[in-house]
């Protein structure tokens, strides 16, 4: 009986694998990847190498909207190459995608990272026309720690002088929206290099917290949050939206029944419903 079940399941497995490979190949053909472009020449990071970015360019049209995606990973791990599926899927849907690396802790702190994200935005604004993108239609997207960094750059006035350069912010299960309150309760330790990422100074904790800089200049925000994610993410996302309602009364959290990592991995599938919602958000605000 076991052999019979195995013989039935085997062709099903290979069919599913073939479907996945076809999706991958079709997505690759619909886009062009340009790798390892240096976007910053000067950094206070404690490493000699400079951050680079990948561009996923649409092949069939020009003047397309642009998404800059910032990855997560506790501010001390992750790399741009993992998220090629997002770049290919967006490019297939007519959105040029920029995915940067940034200096991770302990080689840099939140301020180093935010300044590099700002530099990636400025590089995109100045260069994206070469890759079929429209510099006046730039959107930021980030997951987890990456959500924190784009929210910080989009709210704290010390990073991006011209907020109009960013047409919208897409927060996917964003962490760290109120680091001040969190670190007052749980002071930073060497775990995840938080002692370096946030430092021991309370004024830096507030400086690193997007919730304290929400204003009328904050770009439009689209939020998705998992109902099974970390409780601190759920509570701080709710508080962030409440603060944001003063300036963007229609903003709300799109809750999804997922844990933290699946909130990102679901984007592997080009038919994932979030692409449609994000494209709608882009179309309204571009």
Description:
The chain is of the alpha/beta class. 40% of the residues lie in helices and 19% in strands. It contains 10 helices and 8 strands. The chain has helices at residues 2-29, 84-92, 110-127, 145-155, 179-185, 194-197, 202-207, 231-244, 262-265, 273-285; strands at residues 31-38, 52-58, 64-70, 96-100, 133-143, 168-172, 221-226, 253-256. Strands 1-2-4-3-5-6-7-8 form an 8-stranded mixed β-sheet, sandwiched between helices. Strand 7 (221-226), helix 8 (231-244) and strand 8 (253-256) form a beta-alpha-beta unit. Helix 3 (110-127) packs across helix 4. The longest helix is centred in the N-terminal third of the chain and has 28 residues, at 2-29. The protein starts with a helix and ends with a helix. The model is unreliable at 1-10 and 17-21 (pLDDT under 50).
Offer a quick outline of the entry:
This protein is of the alpha/beta class and 286 residues long. The protein has helices spanning 2-29, 84-92, 110-127, 145-155, 179-185, 194-197, 202-207, 231-244, 262-265, 273-285; strands at 31-38, 52-58, 64-70, 96-100, 133-143, 168-172, 221-226, 253-256.
């Amino acid at each position: 009986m076991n052999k019979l079940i195995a013989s039935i399941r085997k062709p099903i497995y290979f069919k599913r694998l073939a479907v996945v490979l076809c999706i991958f190949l079709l997505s690759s053909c619909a886009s062009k990847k340009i790798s390892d472009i240096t976007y910053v020449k000067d950094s206070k990071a404690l490493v000699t190498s400079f951050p680079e970015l990948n561009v996923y360019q649409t092949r069939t049209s020009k003047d397309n909207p642009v998404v800059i995606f910032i990855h997560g990973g506790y501010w001390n791990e992750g790399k741009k190459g993992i998220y090629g599926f997002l770049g290919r899927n967006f490019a297939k849907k007519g959105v040029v995608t920029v995915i940067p690396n940034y200096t991770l802790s302990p080689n840099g702190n939140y301020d180093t990272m935010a300044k590099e994200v700002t530099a990636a935005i400025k590089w995109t604004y100045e260069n994206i026309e070469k890759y079929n993108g429209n510099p006046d239609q730039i959107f930021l997207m980030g997951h987890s720690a990456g959500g924190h960094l784009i929210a910080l750059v989009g709210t704290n006035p010390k990073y991006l002088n011209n907020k109009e350069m960013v047409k919208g912010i897409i927060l996917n299960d964003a962490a760290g929206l109120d680091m001040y309150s969190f670190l007052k309760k749980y002071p930073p330790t060497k775990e995840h290099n938080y002692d370096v990422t946030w430092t021991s100074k309370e004024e830096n904790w507030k400086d690193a917290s997007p919730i304290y800089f929400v204003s009328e200049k904050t770009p439009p925000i689209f939020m998705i949050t998992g109902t099974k994610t970390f409780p601190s993410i759920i509570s701080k996302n709710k508080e962030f939206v409440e603060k944001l309602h003063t300036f963007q009364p229609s903003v709300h959290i799109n809750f999804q029944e997922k844990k933290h990592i699946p909130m990102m991995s679901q984007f592997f599938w080009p038919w994932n419903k979030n692409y449609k919602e994000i494209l709608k958000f882009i179309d309204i605000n571009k």
